[in-house]
Design a protein that fits this description.
- With 115 residues, the chain is mainly beta.
- The protein has one domain (5-113).
- The chain is 14% helix and 42% strand.
- It is built from 1 helix and 9 strands.
- It has one helix at 5-20; strands spanning 28-32, 35-39, 46-47, 50-51, 60-71, 76-86, 96-97, 103-107, 110-113.
- The chain has a 4-stranded antiparallel beta sheet with strand order 1-2-8-9, covered by helices on one side. The protein has a 3-stranded antiparallel beta sheet with strand order 6-5-7, with no helix packed on it. A two-stranded antiparallel ribbon has the order 3-4.
- The chain is flat and about 50 Å long.
Length: 115
């Protein structure tokens, strides 16, 4: 079965991120037209006045609906589905940690996971 371009690019992205891990901890976001690629590894957390050793999860993701400002031309508000990627959850609403070393591609609100 032929693979689509998104799957091929995800493999290239995941392999590049894996080779860059030897340089240290890091997250990577890459945008290619209509696809967002994300890679999470490990991060340092602030614990009071000290910092922890690097540990996963590095990136968190969530999918949510939100209402955007009223459209000045059509005089209406729009509901938009968003997918957020953050290094730490911004609130208690639906954040899921990425697995250590995971790479994903998001296209048309669908997640493709690296195999």
């Amino acid at each position: 079965m032929a693979r689509n371009v998104c799957e091929v690019l995800l493999d290239v992205f995941a392999n590049a991120c894996e080779s860059m891990r030897s340089f240290g901890n890091g997250d990577f976001l890459y945008d290619e037209a209509d696809v967002l690629f994300a890679h999470g590894h490990r991060r340092v957390y602030e614990d009071g006045r000290e910092y922890t050793e690097p540990k996963p999860p590095r990136l968190h993701a969530r999918k949510r609906w939100t209402r955007v400002a009223q459209d000045e031309i059509h005089r209406r508000s729009l509901n938009v589905k968003l997918r957020d990627q953050q290094t730490v959850p911004l609130d208690e609403q639906g954040w899921e940690p990425m697995s250590k070393g995971a790479s994903i591609a998001v296209k048309n609100d669908q997640i493709v996971k690296a195999g």
